[in-house]
Amino acid sequence: MTARTTRKRSLPRTGGTAEPRRRSAWAWVGFAIPLVVLLLVITVSSVMGEPGSEIETGQAPPFALPTTAGGVVSLDEILAQGDALLYFSMGVGCDGCFTQIPEALTGLQERGLQLVPIMVDPADWVAEEAARTGVTTPILIDESREVSHAYGMLGVYGHPDRPSHSFALVHADGTVAWVKHYSTMFVPLDQLLADMGSA
Question: Residue ranges per domain, the chain?
Fold first, then answer.
């Protein structure tokens, strides 16, 4: 009688231990699947290249934006001075995004291009980061994100509410000649110029 009771009690104990182990294994599988999918997306993105943009070879959406230097600057005013490379970036929290500005500025000027940085953070935040990183170029502020959206700069490389690291070359006649999105937060000038080619 005692032996039977012991056997009956031992069976549920064994079953009780195996069940949590099974659940634990499935929990790990459930945790691992999203990570594998994310890695695949990143790998495919880097192999296939950057996303496209609807505005390429189209007419540049007009805008008028405040700047860190004060006042408002319009696209028409910018293009009155010649071709411009609009530079959309993550902004505050990305040192490489600020370092990109002096890196590209001189080389682009030698090519006859203006560099126009555009960021979506509040002006005082951007001005503070610019001062900290030694950037003196005025930065346009698109806090509403309307301009970034119009240029197709949101939702690229996993950043739904802000640009990643993207450029749009706009000729003086208002046409968009070239668009490029980068997954990295800094692009050396020689690579940027090579990618732009003769656009």
Answer: 1-48, 64-196
SS3 of the chain: CHHHHHHHHHHHHHHHHHHHHHHHHHHHHHHHHHHHHHHHHHHHHHHHCCCCCCCCCCECCCCEEEECCCCEEEHHHHHCCCCEEEEEECCCCCHHHHHHHHHHHHHHHHCCCEEEEEECCCHHHHHHHHHHHCCCCCCEECCCCHHHHHCCCCCECCECCCCCEEEEEECCCCEEEEEEECCCCCCCHHHHHHHHCCC
Q: Which two tokens stand for residue 61?
A: 């959406």
CATH number attached to the domain at 64-196 = 3.40.30.10
Q: pLDDT: is 18 or 172 the higher one?
A: 172
Instruction: Give the pLDDT confidence score for residue 149 in this predicted structure.
Output: 96
Output 59 or 53, whichever has higher pLDDT.
59
